[in-house]
Design a protein that fits this description.
Rossmann fold; binds adenosine-5'-diphosphate; 15% strand; single chain; binds magnesium ion; alpha/beta; 7-stranded parallel beta sheet; 575 residues
């Protein structure tokens, strides 16, 4: 099968093509390119790809094409099962957009918590039903939904439906549909329970598996802050005060943390809501509606709860906890910077280990993450003042009501200066809430300034591995707290290198370098043992010793760092 790279190649009906263009989709995603032709051909399909890869359209397009609009009796021809009301709504909205120009397609969504009467009335003309298994069962029992003309069943987020306990409902529903129906299943994971469903309800299923995620993090500016563990929440609040995001998502690793943090943020006056797996479906829907329609601008969520929920236009994604793996990181930050927009992500790290983990994630994604400082109260005030001054500026360009002019006149007559009146008015209008959070100022240790003493560390990689001074500097500065200018003399031998680092940092550097790589090779690092070295030399043997087997190539340190640090002892030895 040829690989499809444009929607034109799929030769959609012009009315669908037009709708797709209006939705701004130019090329099909991988899962769409692969699954659409198969589903069109009538195959049972198992589609496996991550959230955000466009699975809805992958089944919605062929599903809509299969609807026979000439059918005299309105009967349900396509049945789509989704795990939550949220996802059912999303799916039906996507189908409505897709069929904007197609007459005769009547998608109806059914889910719990919505008025039965209206659903029943709408079901009378439905030819596509999108619903949660529970509510679909309800309608089947009431005989308000008949499935005997169903040609295609779609199980969307099948693994999620199973984990929500819909297994029996799903099976009952599938058994109620004609046995020659086509069955398509989408799932992000393939646990054995899914395989069991597949075996029982699919015929010769074709597997479409997209391994890597097609999202790009290129248009997301990725930052991190490094704050003490006990001040993570403060850091987050300071950032929220400063950036004032119109929509933000905050990710935590545990449900408990999600609850605590959202509660804490609410107490501090933020419009924050929690979203996690323990919430009842109705609660989840309420939270999502609030977020989507603007009464909540901060959503605190776990990775799992946020899965499958399509929220666009998030201005900043905060990782309150550093994510457990790269995939989660991509999912999280992918909530911002969607399709053609710039986004921002800020990860809260505490301590060097987490910073290293953060950089490691960025490195495997081939992107960069830069450190920023947590805004101080002064930063927040000046930003607010700027915005307020702009507001006043704007008002000055507009009309000012007579009653206010009269007020100013009265105050002037009472002997106040224009200056004082203006300042008092501004204060009243713009009175700010103090954050009550003390600044988080990062103290940067001054190693080089400490006492000028250097210690040497040995890395078991050398000229034989084509290592150059800049490789060593890059690796050390990346993982440790040292800057390039802190590093002293570098000597490279055949199979090891010696680097001078400020004495008071040596142990820490060795710790941080645990597991590091130089030139792609894992290296071992230890302290240089001067004494051992000398005696070995004296004995004239280089076997089993750390002594140089050849004379050091003297590296001009200007190439690697700005400061030179004389190392008399060493040069003596060399001479
Ligand atoms: P999934 O079900 O895999 O999580 P969705 O179907 O919810 O993914 O799609 C994620 C987002 O990508 C939605 O906002 C959707 O409108 C958008 N999208 C889908 N297909 C395309 C496409 N071909 N090009 C651009 N955006 C797309
Ligand atoms: Mg989906």
């Amino acid at each position: 099968m040829d690989i499809i790279t444009s929607f034109q190649e799929l030769a959609l009906q012009p009315k669908l093509q037009r709708a797709i263009e209006e939705m701004g989709f130019e090329t099909p995603t991988e899962i769409q390119a692969q699954a659409i032709p198969l589903i069109r051909n009538g195959a049972d399909v198992i589609g496996r790809s991550q959230t955000g890869t466009g699975k809805t359209m992958a089944f919605a397009i062929p599903a809509v094409e299969k609807i026979d609009t000439g059918h005299e009796r309105h009967s349900v021809q396509v049945l789509i099962m989704c795990p939550t009301r949220e996802l059912a709504l999303q799916c039906s909205e996507e189908i409505k957009r897709l069929t904007k120009y197609s007459g005769g397609i009547h998608p109806v969504e059914v889910y719990g918590g919505a008025a039965m009467d209206r659903q029943i009335a709408r079901l009378k003309r439905a030819n596509i039903v999108i619903g949660t298994p529970g509510r679909i069962m309800d309608h089947m029992r009431r005989r308000t939904l008949r499935l005997d003309n169903v040609k295609l069943v779609v199980l969307d987020e099948a693994d999620e439906m199973l984990s929500m306990g819909f297994k029996e409902d799903m099976e009952t529903i599938l058994r109620e549909t004609p046995s020659d129906r086509q069955t398509v299943l989408f799932s992000a994971t393939m646990p054995p329970s899914i395989m069991a469903i597949t075996e029982e309800f699919q015929t010769n299923p074709q597997l479409v598996q997209i391994n890597k995620k097609q999202v790009t993090v290129d248009n997301i500016v990725q930052h991190y802050v490094d704050v003490p563990m006990g001040r993570k929440t403060d850091a987050l609040k300071l950032m929220l005060h400063y950036y004032k995001p119109s929509l933000a998502m905050i990710f935590c690793n545990t449900k408990k943390m999600v609850d605590e943090l959202s509660e804490d943020l609410r107490k501090s006056g933020f419009n924050a809501e929690a979203l996690h797996g323990d919430l009842k479906q109705s609660q989840r829907s309420t939270v999502m509606d609030k977020f989507r329609y603007g009464s909540t601008n901060i959503l605190v969520a776990t990775d799992v709860a946020a899965r499958g929920i399509d929220v666009n236009d998030v201005e900043i994604v905060f990782n309150y906890d550093i994510p457990q793996n790269n995939e989660y990181y991509v999912h999280r930050i992918g909530r911002t910077g969607r399709i053609g927009k710039k986004g921002t992500s800020i990860t809260v790290c505490s301590g060097r280990k987490q910073v290293i983990a953060m950089k490691e994630i960025a490195r495997t994604l081939k992107s960069t993450v830069t450190e920023i400082d947590v805004p101080t109260n002064a930063d927040i005030h000046s930003r607010i003042n700027e915005a307020n001054a702009q507001t006043v500026e704007n008002a000055l360009h507009g009309e000012i009501g007579q009653q206010y002019i009269n007020m100013v006149n009265t105050l002037l007559e009472n002997g106040h200066s224009l200056f004082d009146i203006a300042a008092a008015a501004l204060q009243m209008h713009f009175s700010e809430d103090e954050t009550n959070i003390s600044d988080i100022v990062k103290e940067r240790k001054q190693y080089k300034g400490s006492d000028g003493k250097f210690s040497k560390i040995v890395l078991d990689i050398g000229r034989a591995s084509r290592v150059a001074p800049n490789h060593l500097v890059a690796s050390i500065t990346e993982r440790s707290m040292l800057h390039g200018s802190d590093i002293g003399k570098i000597e490279i031998y055949d199979d090891y290198s010696v680097v001078a680092v400020p004495s008071n940092s040596a142990d820490e550097v060795i710790d941080m370098m645990y597991g590091a790589k130089v030139c792609g090779k894992p290296v071992k690092i230890r302290l240089y043992e001067e004494k051992q070295n000398r005696s070995a030399r004296r004995a004239g043997s280089s076997k089993n010793s750390h002594a140089p087997k050849n004379l050091p190539r003297n590296i001009n340190k200007k190439a690697v760092s700005k400061k030179t640090s004389p190392h008399p002892r060493h040069s003596k030895r060399q001479g």
